[in-house]
């Protein structure tokens, strides 16, 4: 009895629905009113589609894919082969070119089946309805949602051409394994663009969206292959291809080339995303943390490209150098490499065996800098203010000022020495005397341009001359500051991000930093020559293999808890920090000088 009642209901509903549609098209005034109403109620600008964002190296190679929350890359209509469009039209919606968004005969058939089963078994969805469901609605099975789907489909047909609807559909559908849209599916399963797919591969991909989990090519390859063959037969039956071609395509082997999401250089990518926060915050003037996080998530879901300054070869060398010279599991290291000629951060390693999301020591670890701070806080401010030369004399003897009594390494005492000797052998008492002569506050004023994040008023003490800071500095901060010595006293904050573009290539964000003259060229030239002498005949002799013009400054903190070396060679300024995450003495490896060997291997020509 229920079945008979259902069919009677269909006989009554279908003519009524047809009458509404006919009236909609024939009554001009009413049609305009209906369209206007739909236009007001249905917003086609707010879609649910998100796209995969990409981080690219300086050679445009994709190094990281960011899914928020799904993997999708938009393909324009001309990037999608006509063959696969035909496959979807034949298999999903043969009346696609004729209907106004919904197919009445198909709806009638679906109603009959659903009433018979006392459930919603069939949806009779056109391609346009499927687009409405994927892009604007949800997949909940209900007659309410179905009605909304029909209305959205009708409005889509009034707004877009058939080719535009098909293009949007091909970018909205799900191909399983977090691949949304034909472009992401082609890349994920075959490592190809859609236009590079063979017709056999196109039909294979077209087999998936009908039931993505059932036709998962990785878990159920044979199911997917059988459906592909059915689709090819349907194409032949409807005259889209010849029967012999269908048989040929069925026999072509399908070879999947699936690998995991790209995340090749997590040390660098992790920092690039951190820098993205700074860039968005600065350019959109967002101070609220939650608001900033929301804006970044929105941006990443839109499918942007973050173009970075990463030099892949140099990144590999940097990571390998840290690994090679730190065999002890507990000893960690970080390194940053900057092209000081261009102001680009070209390589970063956040630690041995770094994994995405780990604590990135390159910019998140703040440690005492030891004597590596001397060129910035002591010698450059001194040369800037006094007519001193490298052979000028300075007292390296014992010193006590208001209870502060610094010692030279090993407790050694010296008399009058040249500034060059004091620098290249890293004597402490001369450095403290120089800072006192310059004035602590004046010397720290010189550092303001470098924006050391953890340096505060509490650090304005004489002990800072030898690296005695409350919290310390990060390897990236210190390396960035050192670029001033290779740029004639001009500082331009080094950046990892070159620009951020949308999927069509429009520049959305880029840094607009202005260079600042910190010291005179003559000042930095004196310091630079001292750093070169440090490598050739001072505390950094083990780094001399980098090249004849290399220069830098070592730093060792009390009890050998931290080893530093920051220096330049050619166009590169690199900084290396060695230590344990929980500071402990590393005196056992002091004679090996791993920080110098790592640095040498990174920057040597």
Automatic annotation (TrEMBL):
Residues 61-235 form the Glycosyl transferase family domain. Its main location: membrane. GO terms for molecular function: penicillin binding; peptidoglycan glycosyltransferase activity; serine-type D-Ala-D-Ala carboxypeptidase activity. One of its GO terms (cellular component) is plasma membrane. It is found in: Cell membrane. The keyword Cell membrane applies. It holds the Pfam family Transpeptidase. PANTHER family: BINDING PROTEIN TRANSPEPTIDASE, PUTATIVE-RELATED, PENICILLIN-BINDING PROTEIN 1B. This is Penicillin-binding protein.
